[in-house]
Amino acid sequence: MTEVTLLIATRKGAWLLQGDKARRSWRVDGPHFLGHEINHVMLDPRDGRTMIAAGKTGHLGPTLFRSSDRGTSWKEAARPPAFSKSADGEGPSVDHTFWLTPGHADEPGVWYAGTSPQGLFRSEDGGDSWAPVSGFNDRQGAKKAAGGAQEGTPDGPKLHSIIVDPRDRKHLYLGMSGGGVHESTDGGASWHPLIQGLEVVAGLDPANLAFHDPHCIRLCPSRPDRLYQQNHCGIYRLDRPSDTWRRVGKAMPSGVGDIGFPMVVHPRDADRAWVFPMDGTDVWPRTCPGGAPAVYSTRDGGESWERQSSGFPAEQVWWTVKRQAMTADRSESVGLYFGTTSGELWASADEGESWNCIARHLPEIYAVEAATA
Amino acid sequence: MRVMMPSALRSYTGAGEVEAEGETLAALLDDLDRRYPGIRFRVVDEQDRIRRHIRFFINGEQSFDLALKLEPDAEIYIVQALSGG
């Protein structure tokens, strides 16, 4: 069985957890960048050793750190993501890099980054220097779709879920929270919205991109024409070439609902996926519904969902799992992992049937990735 | 001229006090970035705006103007200012 390394990004630094072959015990390596707000740490699956961490501190502006030895040593990127300088000096500036995606297998060294305020950036040298993707950042209506920092989510509007089609390096998807789902078929030179079928908050106009809030979008590696999405307004599935999302979350129990942040797909079975619902009623507590944490799993593409809560406390649990903070490994019995806003890390070695807390007392967890190189 | 560094920037400079040159605050920051690559972007953004939690004091006077002329013997303090936990 392959050994798994968990890449944990938190509000106060990053940690790496190295699992044993059985994924029962975990060796803790960290903190890295103590005191930095780390939004994402990602390993390049193409070489198995390059890592990039997106960070900033309370005082200092954003940057990226790179490692070429799986996190043993780190070096700051020479030119981190930054918008083009505007003539009037009123243009946007990157507050933080939020999302990192390694490029296509045929393009070693290419990476994509999504920022807040929302911008798409690309590196062709393994993440050392970055340039704005002008086809996205400067497209017509970009400002209207994204809104300003004040109009976005409280921590700033996010560009996330950058997806590269494994069959076609020029076929890209991304999510804007808010601002909708967007697709490019020409490597990012031009983009079109992909929002048909997605609901928005009652009373708002679904034709207005600014009202769309995808939280997390995942492509199924075993069936790249299938995408799942956890949205502000439900769980959706899309089977291309259709361009209409279907709200499969309506099959979730009515007392739980289909609101949440993360979306996880099985590495080899496109009918299997997992979500972590949160309370999206009245004032949006965004906590475990009823104080009882549970993962929900589907085996049939979202037509039905089963509750998986063995190992979790039964009551009085009020944390949240953020959109990057839940993931799967590629083991034969797929391991699932999630981190909480209260700094707990939970793991399942049996596809969600049972859960163990493998770390606690960490800072608020922003992102969890499982590297099985 | 003498430039006093906040603790958050000492991973770049290795010291709390460094020497740098520049006829303006902007030129001083360019010189600092040549000496300590990457430091400028951590304190000034891509639109040349001083970051929200960074302050510059020149001979004890706060300035937000990167075009500010500097005397050769000016004493610069870069200060970090943040609330919250």
Describe the model:
The complex is a heterodimer of chains A (373) and B (85). Chain A has 373 residues and is mainly β. Helices cover 2% and strands 38% of the residues of chain A. In chain A, the strands form seven sheets. A four-stranded antiparallel sheet of chain A has the order 3-2-1-27, with no helix packed on it. In chain A, strands 4-5-6-7 form a four-stranded antiparallel sheet, with no helix packed on it. By secondary structure, chain B is α+β, with helices and mostly antiparallel strands. Chain B is 24% helix and 24% strand. Chain B has helices spanning 10-13, 25-35, 39-43; strands at 2-4, 17-19, 54-58, 61-63, 75-80. The longest helix of chain B has 11 residues, at 25-35. Chain B is globular and about 40 Å long. The relative contact order of chain B is 0.24. Classes of the chains: A mainly beta (373), B alpha+beta (85). Chain A binds chain B through residues 57-61, 63, 76, 78, 80, 82-86, 89-94, and chain B through 6, 8-9, 37-38, 41-49, 51, 53-54, 80-82, 84.
- CATH superfamily annotation of one domain in chain A: YVTN repeat-like/Quinoprotein amine dehydrogenase
Mean pLDDT of chain B: 95
State the helix count of chain A. Answer: 2
Largest beta-sheet details of chain A: 4 strands, antiparallel
Poorly predicted segments of chain A: none
- Give the CATH topology of one domain in chain A: Methylamine Dehydrogenase, Chain H
Using the coordinates shown, work out and report the CATH topology of chain B.
Ubiquitin-like (UB roll)
Sheet bearing the most strands of chain B, described? 5 strands, mixed
Largest interface: A-B, 20 and 21 residues
Give the fraction of residues assigned to helices of chain A.
under 10%
CATH superfamily of chain B: Beta-grasp domain
Taking pLDDT < 50 over at least 5 consecutive residues as the criterion, the unreliable ranges of chain B are none
- Percentage of residues assigned to helices of chain B: 10-25%
Q: How much β-strand is present in the residues of chain A? A: 35-45%
Order of helices and strands of chain A, N to C? EEEEEEEEEEEHHEEEEEEEEEEEEEEEE
Number of DSSP helical runs of chain B: 3
Question: Which quaternary structure do these chains form?
Answer: heterodimer
Structural class of chain A: mainly beta
Q: Tally the beta strands of chain B.
A: 5
Cα separation of the termini of chain A: 11 Å
- Which CATH architecture of one domain in chain A is right? 7 Propeller
